[in-house]
Request: fold
Amino acid sequence: MGIKYCVPQTVHMDTTPEKRMKFAEVIIRKCDEVSALTNDLFLHALSDMDKLEMNMHEVKLCAFMRKAVAELISDMDSVRLILPDSEWVISADEKRLMQLTENILNNAAKYGEMPVDITIRQKDNDTVQINFKDYGNRMKDEDIPFALIAVIMFCHRMFLQEKTDIGILKAMGRTSIQLRLSFGLRFLLLAVSGAVPGVICSVLLSGKLLTAILKPMGITHLIISLHPASVLFPIGLICVSFFLFAFLVSRGIKKLSVTVLIAE
Reply:
């Protein structure tokens, strides 16, 4: 829970006294921490990660996670803690671990759907695994127009020369609908050819990349579990957008003069 969220809630006073007190406590705590902690670990470049100061000490993980959730989340029903029966003690920087937990919960609230499941389990004798699972399966609705604008701008640049090429094919006897479908399918295949390698790299390398980034902070093994819908939905949206844009825009097939046809 960040200051930007707490301040409007406190100012408008449209919540219960208990929640207003929780918002005020979060604002005070944030103001105390802002000079000592960075607001977002993921904004640091790899070359700067070793500059972060770490204060490693023993932390009771289950007790820490209960405390973190109580401080960061006003609605306890939005988080489900699945903890082991016995307490586990790990070596970590408690403030950095708190910051990491806050970032993940904030991103889950922003891009996913609550509740969030937090599970702590032992992976092997020397490793404890913390899983954060939200139930979001798509990009935010307000982000979709920006993705479509990017697709439209990219397709428009590609279509400038294609108008001439399609005009040549039409002059050779191809029908307009055949040319438009063919052109749309070309854009669809282009989008798929870029999406498939991207998905493979994301599935295989995302966890390893984030582990390498967070390893200097004591996060030695980060596992990302991707739901099929969270991968297939944005890919399908982009690919279909490529096809529809190409099909619709190609209705204005350029008519070429005899001189241009001979030159081509």
